[in-house]
Please model this.
Amino acid sequence: MGRTYFVEEAIGQYLSDLSTKLKPYVTGLLIGQHSPQRDYVIRAVRTPPKEEQKEESIPSKLASIDEEWITTHASQVAQMLPGGLVVLGVFIIATPELSKDSQNALRKLIFSVEKSLTKRRLWKPDEEEVSDRAALQICSATKKVVCRTYDVQDPRSSAKPADWKYQSALSASWLALDCTVNVNIHIPLLATSPNHDLEKNTKNGLNRWSKQIEDSVFLINGQIKDDDTELLEGQKKLRGNTQSSTQFSDVKVLTQLSQGSSHRSTAAVQVCSGSINLKGAVKCRAYIHNNKPKVKEAIQALKRDIINTLSDRCEILFEDIIINEGPHKKNFPREYHVLPQRLFVPVAGSSVMLSDYKFGDESDAEIQERFVEMLDQSVQVEDIHIAEEINTVDICPITDNVDDTQQKQVTKATLLLKLQQNMGVVIAAAVAVFASIFSFNYFSD
Model:
């Protein structure tokens, strides 16, 4: 028996509109949530056209689909999804002449997108995790919808039939889990590795930290709950409500201070040329469907958001540094920059909010433009909810009195990156209070 996809009713109209506007074909992503019994599709997003590409210049054959462009779009969209939301699959709307080639094109895209998304993850899927991805084919003339799935864990996977069912107010009362996670990560830079490769070293350090998050204890509304119990056990479920409303659960994350006696540990002495420090707090959020969700589903979604939001934040930061400073710049004057702040934007007719990251010098218009380009969604300025305070970056150069030998061994720059977040905590008798600081410090000997 194939999987069933419950789809937000508005998506049907969105896909119908695309079929009349874009010819001979249009591709896009399906966004939603997996669950053991069924999947939920809450958004469909068309692939944005390239700047140099006009509608009349779209290739007339599916064999010429730009896979790299579509996978890049999928990776950027994934950064804008809070915990619990993922790219469920891809769709193609094509003319009858191209329909016979659509399934082959969809199959290639599904595996390419999955490969691209897997590269950026710092977590590994569970053994019981759903590995089917949707391939949705729509004929622009007849409007016929054909949904199939492919198992991305099996390169030889063949298409399986799947049900595509529209439902109104599908995500109008989904559950949200909120938490703020304190971060204190020290990442040594080995003397044998290139000091300038900060991104690679940071990812290695985050990889180790992500395992701590996986092993953490999660308190939901102050309680430890068994994984297989229902998240809403003991709570009243919202019924007959077509208006978007969210039930929030406050979550506390308790990380282990040390390993138990059953774990053996070894110490290694390594020569280091510097260090990277990530310290402070990050705002995290995950959404979960309201069809008898299990505690383990909700916690898994929140764990992945914690890991993703810190990893994505660092990735965006390094991209910005490379764009503005150049990949081979060696002498950094003292400069102040703004780190990306996390923000949330509501989805019409849904209790779910999408996520993004904003640099301090970005205007609201730029945020609105990015949502239109990446998610094909218009956003009102008043609907942009900033989750964190302004964040600053202080890039400090090495002092001039370093001798030549040391200068060859260490990088030319010291990065000090600070992200300040107001936690709403007031400390009595303090002259000045910084409630939370998220900083990226790069120290070199």
About this structure: The chain has a mean pLDDT of 78. Residues 174-231+246-257+270-397 form one domain. The helical segments are 9-21, 67-78, 99-119, 198-214, 295-325, 364-375, 404-409. The first strand starts at residue 4 and ends at 8.
